[in-house]
Specification:
homodimer; 420 residues; alpha/beta; Aldehyde Dehydrogenase, Chain A, domain 1; Aldehyde Dehydrogenase, Chain A, domain 2; 2 domains; 4-stranded parallel sheet; 21% strand; globular
Chain lengths: 420, 420
């Protein structure tokens, strides 16, 4: 059997490679025709898609899915329409391929430029939510990449039904048939085989739990764009506006808890701690936030639980907040350096020097002043749709939109120049 | 013993990490003071450096170094001065850290910008030529990165003597002492240990033979910037200026043979083949180029040797040239796609459409029209010094100068905005 998976994986990757060569020089119009028709077919096939989704929902209890996970898995007519609308949004984004990044003329007359090109073949591994299938396919095709999609077993029938619309659109609009491919088995050995094909696949993007991402990072023989923990901090500086600090903490922690850009840890300057906790405690109680704090925190919030070092390094993804009172900005910076995950950290302050020092010193994908951590998001940053939020520093950092799915090449134009 | 190497590697990496945090916000002036003093001390220590180099040269025969390799290893007073002058050149380059890449204001008033930041800790592995020790240290410090240098055993004494000048400069100018560290053992286990420290080292850059680079790629638990084969093509189109084609072929193949941007394969359109080979044959003979050709090539160059498929995929790094006569541009593009290494390829033509199709279709780091492949080089592209020429598509492609040693972060400035 393992030989079968090997050859299946090799076939997928080879087919993607062939398609990627065609996609690289495809016009925006041809890509838009496919996106447009895909959106139409998704809406037209909504009944079949929802019926396939029902098969997944029927099996969901056997996979032990929580009710929240089942809700994320569920498709309805209006959700399918929203998925199609997201494809239309991708059409409206500028085509990154062919963008002239920079250009200049050398003293010997050579005209040198850098032009944006697709990465080539993307292997995208994700879990549960079936809309990701369509988002990822739309972003990859728009950026001129072939993509191999590997969704979770919980969504297999839904993903197949969604994928059928894309295949149909390829046939009708002439997009290379293997530009978008779905791994149509839940056999994990296929993933391992694909991760070994570094000569055919240009990048792997895993989106899901930490264990998935770590496994992929170890096995992959090609670059990986990782989306790991978001241990995001809100630091309330001594010069903070207290109402603003409470509002930003509330939004960062409570607006949506299960996402990577939600805050997990609150740091408070000791000089503002009495007044700040006085204002924040009722919000924390109203929002049912469990606080795990340092000894000084416990003086202000008697209901808080004592925090351990493990708390400070934990991404709760829940209504839990670790908290520490610090002596000064420097202690806050050290804490973020030690326990943060280089995702998103914000300072609330009206002190210019403190704001600038925080921005310069915190080594995270997004560093903010007087804004909620929840803004670290492709849509909120104005990039349009994103394929994820990278916690890497290499190639792409923070929200990964269309440009982050590209590379560049150097173009040199001359009239016979040779090197002296 | 292996525990000793483990703790040695961990110590190097931890110290580099600490230094990298300080380097990230160091002013250009402080970095320039160190570069300037390093250059001065290299010149001042020239006698000791050359004496240490003599110890390496004495041992060179026991390592089986060729006379060419021994020449590359050798340091003289004037070569030390040239190394110091290269450091001065790095001072003159713009500091990439803090560069505002882009910035804009969102409808909710958030001011969003992307600012260039150092990658962090660079692990640089290289072979023989001792000047690389200084080039790499200068580029890494200028770009705000801490660096761990691991040179070849053949240059150990030379590298230590060069490194002493850098250490002295750090002491005198206040650069963090562990910003630049040399692995002062030839024990290979240390390399393996360092490659496992993905949480401390941000990128590994191996520069050397293919086996080194492949070993590093397999073991590294962090991103790798690879510098692999340069199987570069010169394609002489039917609309080529024949004298220009001969000149570009000569320069691409013969100006320096042992480098990655030298041409290894010549493709000739069948319609121009008779006239082109008529003009090129005497040059190829004068330059002592051994041609390995397809059957049609052999008709024009009777002294050529029949080529095999293996020839077309070979980086000779020598006065050997594989050659194929093709029916049209499309066959040339297919050949480059199949046998090239995505490094540098050039078309010689006066046909506008052919030039543009070549530029658009060839997926190489540098694609050229009417110019020698030898121009794919940081200095020739105007980037200043380079740490290598990347054959990857991810993060950095082609010449890697200061900017390619950086990442970016998102800066968000607000007045209390929260997400709706």
């Amino acid at each position: 059997m393992s030989d079968d998976w090997k050859s299946y994986a090799l076939q997928l990757a080879n087919q993607a490679k062939v398609a990627s060569r065609q996609l690289a020089t495809l016009s925006s119009r041809a890509k838009h025709d496919w996106l447009k028709r895909s959106a139409e077919l998704l809406v037209a096939n909504s009944n079949e898609i929802c019926a396939a989704n029902q098969r997944d929902l029927d099996l969901a209890p056997s996979y032990g899915l929580s009710s929240a996970a089942i809700d994320r898995l569920k498709l309805t007519d209006s959700r399918v329409q929203a998925i199609a609308a997201a494809v239309e949004d991708v059409i409206a984004l500028p085509d990154p391929v062919g963008e002239l990044i920079d250009g200049y003329t050398r003293p010997n007359g050579l005209r040198i430029s850098r032009v944006r090109v697709p990465l080539g073949v993307v292997f995208f591994i994700y879990e549960s939510r079936p809309n990701v299938t369509i988002d990822a396919a739309a972003l990859c095709v728009k950026s001129g990449n072939a993509v191999i999609l590997r969704g979770g077993k919980e969504a297999l029938f839904s993903n197949q039904a969604l994928y059928n619309a894309l295949k149909q659109a390829s046939k009708e609009t002439g997009l290379p048939e293997t530009a978008v491919q779905l791994v149509e088995t839940t056999e994990r050995a296929v993933v391992g085989e694909l991760l070994g094909l570094g000569h055919l696949i240009d990048v792997t993007i895993p989106r899901g739990g930490k264990s998935l991402i770590e496994r992929v990072s170890v096995e992959a023989r090609m670059p990986v764009i990782k989306h790991l923990d978001g241990i995001c901090h809100v630091y309330v500086d001594k010069a903070a506006d207290i109402q603003m600090a409470v509002s930003i903490l509330k939004n960062s922690k409570c607006q949506r808890t299960g996402v990577c850009n939600a805050a997990e840890c609150l740091l408070v300057h000791k000089q503002i701690a009495p007044a700040f906790f006085d204002a924040a405690s009722s919000m924390l109680i109203t929002e049912s936030v469990e606080v795990r704090g340092c000894p000084r925190t416990l003086q202000f919030l008697p209901n808080a639980i004592p925090a351990t070092d493990a708390d400070y390094g934990t991404e709760y993804l829940d209504l839990i907040l670790s908290c520490k009172v610090v002596d000064n900005l420097s202690e806050a910076l050290d804490h973020i350096d030690q326990f943060g995950s280089k995702h998103t950290d914000t300072i609330v302050t009206n002190d210019y020097l403190a704001a600038e020092e925080f921005l310069a010193s915190v080594d995270s994908a997004a560093v903010m002043v007087n804004a909620s951590t929840r803004f670290n998001d492709g849509g909120e940053f104005g990039l349009g749709a994103e394929i994820g939020i990278s916690t890497d520093k290499f190639h792409a950092r923070g929200p990964c939109g269309l440009k982050e799915l590209t590379s560049y090449k150097w173009i040199v134009r001359g009239e016979g120049q040779v090197r002296g």
